[in-house]
Amino acid sequence: MKVSLFITCLSDIMFPNVGKNAVEILERLGCEVDFPTLQTCCGQPAYNSGYLEEAKGSMKQMMRAFKGAEYVVGPSGSCVGMIREYPHVFHGDPEWEKPAQELAAKTFELTQFIVDVLGVKDVGSTFKGKVTYHPSCHMTRILGVKDAPKILLQNVKGIEFVELPSGEDCCGFGGTFSVKKPEISAEMVKEKSRHVTETGAEYLVGGDMGCLMNIGGRMQREGKNVKVIHISEILNTHN
Amino acid sequence: MSLKLEDIPFDEGVQKGIENDFMRQAVSEAQGRFRAGRLKQAQELGNWEDWRKLGEEIRTHTVNHIDFYLQQLSEQVEKHGGHVYFAETAEEANSYIKQVIQTKNAKKIVKSKSMVTEEIGLNDALTETGAEVVESDLGEWILQLEGDHPSHIVTPALHKNREQIRETFAKKRGYTGSSEPEELAAFARKQLRSDFLQADVGITGCNFAIAESGTITLVTNEGNADMVWTVPDTLITVMGMERVVPTWEEMEVLVGLLTRSAVGQKLTSYITAYTGCRGEDEIDGPNDYHLVIVDNGRSNALGTEFQAALHCIRCGSCMNVCPVYRHIGGHAYNSVYPGPIGAVLTPVLDGYDDHKDLPFASSLCGACTEACPVKIPLHEMLVLHRQKIVENGDTPFAEKMMMKGVGMWGGSPFVYKMSTKLAHSALKPWTKDETIENGPGPLKAWTQVRDLSAPPKQSFRSWFENRKKDGEN
């Protein structure tokens, strides 16, 4: 199966390991992975800030970049969620509505793709450690992916999985919200950090680097000894 | 008439909320209770998503045909001896109600809970009549004694704990008892009883107005609304124009969604229904009845992308799940309508000038949309508001420039690729041990409370390119 990796701008620039792990997992599961280099950002930062025209530029570029792809897979529920919104954004646009629908229909979040498309529930990884999972808001509520990451995590050998209390609560990232209303965002991430600490987990795992960058940055600032990692790291570990 | 509660900058209100530990504790506990109750009720009822869909369909149909149903409602009310007044503005509504009260030469007015009367500032407007206005909902009564505002549309005194309430009763009404809820409530009942018996005019809000029969229905747990509509000789209902439902059948569906979503109850203790004036064979109810139907900006939403905001059935479940609301409290929204629905509805009714921060005070987590029993896409509407504010040119200059840059960057693979190469060195001056603790520009707000891991030397794309080359060699 041919898969085009949608790396997301955040992981491309800030967290390349997420992409490396994603590529290796997909290849191990028998996919042929390519990386269309014309891809940029899904447009969400501008879109969610109300800058529709600026966002559309990015979105069109993404449609061009992935035009020939069979499947597009990204390691972020939020960014994939944005692409799934393209048909709504370009509704009634004679030139772009159709490409928007095509791209939305073939784009999947990494764990969603593994479980729902490849039909794999155990990627064969081994990971030793106490792990809790933050189900990001856009992954669960916008994209509707609730079970796939947990199914994959629970089938990892050696893992000790603990539920995160009030996991469904937002961590306070919200893209530009975190710098536009920093006081509110700060209270939200402090609360999330408190909940993570309560679990006693050594690792906090999630499927969205935006949220993880926020929670991890806060926990580091608080001097908390919790490693915050993307789910692809666990799914690609064989220790 | 502005919906603003106080004349202070938005961020100041937010700060006040964040610093109020008492309030935050109270709100957090209430949210936990309401949320658990709602989920339990939804599960017990079963097929919750189907019920939500039905709720959405009913509201969509009704608001699409609102002219028809309001006409039907008003004919039915008149048929039952009532007067109907359509108020385009808050001022029109207030002056009509004032006129009724003056004609009756009323000395005492009892009210049951009504957010629309908060919206139009009715109590203030009525001071000119010289009549005493008494709020009879327990929460509203507490706030009236304090001169405070509701911070939640269903549980208005959510931000108060019982110790504060005991103090208020002691200070304002000479209460000497404990802070036990039963004792506080018994005291309030006793105080209010004489007000009910003396009142010349009763004023209620409206949860659902049933068009086919001209009936007003109210949902309460205290039974105070029944005292308000049965005892005084004159009764006035004030309703937002979108409170209408076609028939009793739809009312039943919506009430079930409302009580479950609002407070996690199958039904509230009282579901009150009254129709027009007292009939010849009836022993209670008003001899003179007035229905005031308020527009006050609601028509602005009709036919626009904000129309679904009028579907709201005022259950408050969006506030009960909102993490922003939990941390800043209802008053910080600085609008009669707080929380996610408040952030959506307030600018629709009242314009952006006084409320342009509201749509941005959300992480767009979508918890509100998920909880809404009539499926209003609240977080999407917040984005729409943001688009309007940007279109109006009403965002800071620096942000506009930055977003222009973001647009160019995302629209051009060349510029984007450059950025992946430059990010590491551009942030190097602020980087120590691969961490940025005190970032420049927009990163400053970020690093005030959290670290930022610095971009590594090699981007993903450069790694992939090298890997491919290695593979080919």
What strand line-up does the widest sheet of chain B have?
1-10-7-4-2-3
Count of distinct strands of chain A: 8
Strand segment tally of chain B: 13
CATH topology of the largest domain in chain B: Rossmann fold
Radius of gyration of chain A: 17 Å
* Poorly predicted regions of chain B: none
Q: State the major sheet of chain B.
A: 6 strands, parallel
What does the largest sheet of chain A look like?
Answer: 4 strands, parallel
So how many helices of chain A?
A: 13
pLDDT averaged over residues of chain B = 96
Query: What number of domains of chain A?
Result: 2
CA distance, first residue to last residue of chain B: 74 Å
- CATH C-level of the largest domain in chain B: Alpha Beta
Strand content of chain A: 15-25%
- The domain tally of chain B reads 2
Q: Which series of helices and strands of chain A comes N to C?
A: EHHEHHEHHEHEHHEHHEHEH
- Which strand order does the major sheet of chain A show? 2-1-3-4
**N-C termini distance of chain A:** 28 Å
Beta content of chain B comes to 5-15%
With helices defined by DSSP (H or I, 4 residues minimum), what is the helix count of chain B? 21
Could you write a compact summary of the structure shown?
Helices cover 51% and strands 15% of the residues of chain A. With 239 residues, chain A is α/β, with parallel strands linked by helices. The radius of gyration of chain A is 17 Å and the shape is globular.
Kindly describe this structure.
The complex is a heterodimer of chains A (239) and B (473). Chain A folds into two domains: 2-117, no CATH class; 126-235, Rossmann fold. Chain A is 51% helix and 15% strand. Chain A has helices at 9-13, 16-28, 44-48, 52-65, 77-89, 97-106, 110-117, 137-142, 148-154, 177-180, 182-199, 209-221, 231-235; strands at residues 2-5, 32-34, 71-74, 107-109, 126-134, 157-162, 203-206, 227-230. In chain A, the strands form two sheets. A four-stranded parallel sheet of chain A has the order 2-1-3-4, sandwiched between helices. Chain A has a four-stranded parallel sheet with strand order 6-5-7-8, with helices on both faces. In chain A, α12 links the parallel β7 (203-206) and β8. In chain A, α7 crosses α9 and α11 (182-199) crosses α12 (209-221). The mean pLDDT of chain A is 97. Chain B has two domains: 10-300, Rossmann fold, CATH 3.40.50.10420; 397-472, no CATH class. Helices cover 51% and strands 11% of the residues of chain B. Chain B has a six-stranded parallel sheet, with helices on both faces. Chain B has a four-stranded mixed sheet with strand order 8-5-6-9, sandwiched between helices. A three-stranded antiparallel sheet of chain B has the order 11-12-13, with no helix packed on it. The radius of gyration of chain B is 26 Å and the shape is elongated. The termini of chain B are far apart. The mean pLDDT of chain B is 96. The interface between A and B is large, with 69 and 64 residues.
